[in-house]
Design a protein that fits this description.
Elements: H1 2-12, E1 18-19, H2 24-37, H3 40-44, E2 50-51, E3 54-55, H4 63-72, H5 89-104, H6 109-138, E4 139-142, E5 146-150, H7 151-155, H8 159-174, H9 182-192, E6 198-202, E7 206-211, E8 214-218, H10 222-230
Amino acid sequence: ARREILYNILKSYKFDRIALAHQKDDQAETILMNLVRGSGITGMGGIKPDSDSIVRPLLTFSRKEIEAWLKDNKFDWRLDSSNAKNNFTRNKIRLELLPWLQDNLNPGITDRLSTQAAIFRNADSFLRNHTGRMLKKLVLEDGNEHISLDLSLLRQLSQIEQYYVLRTCYSQLSKTEQEFFQYSFEEVVQILNSEGSKQTKLAHDVWVLKQYNELLLTTSDPDRELSEVKE
């Protein structure tokens, strides 16, 4: 809801960018949260310094550094009261996990996680570009509601390549990268390695069907279409 308001302001006033105040501690919390959730290379890249119309100029500074600067320059700031409550996953990481890691394992854990995030973002960028080149060979048909892939070529790829190809196709159809998790990928891999025609349904109503030498991702319910044909 907050993001939607900011985009409306951006559009109404014809601004170029939205500047958000995420900082290095937010980055560390995000990486740990994504690690626990198992969100893969993309998730381990954490918060991006810039994306679409958004920039985050404070991402290289810690919360302590920012608060010290505010105090030195006599600026007041607001604290969200919900930040002190432990009923949110991020808050548990902020209030319990990160302090424990700093005290018991690595005092510089926040800086280390920030460095690792940059490495993962570079890896993710490389794999996305590589995926774009692969799709030019793999795609048999690309429509608004479906994408057809060459099954024999898809099977020749490594698992990480298959993951990025399938997630890219899923994202194009579902309009989001959310909810294509490792178990989603494993469901599709089972289809790839199975005999005969198979199908499964992913989140956001995206179906995956294996038929002949083709893997079809579609937003049209194949069972419903089959019943309409029989009628």
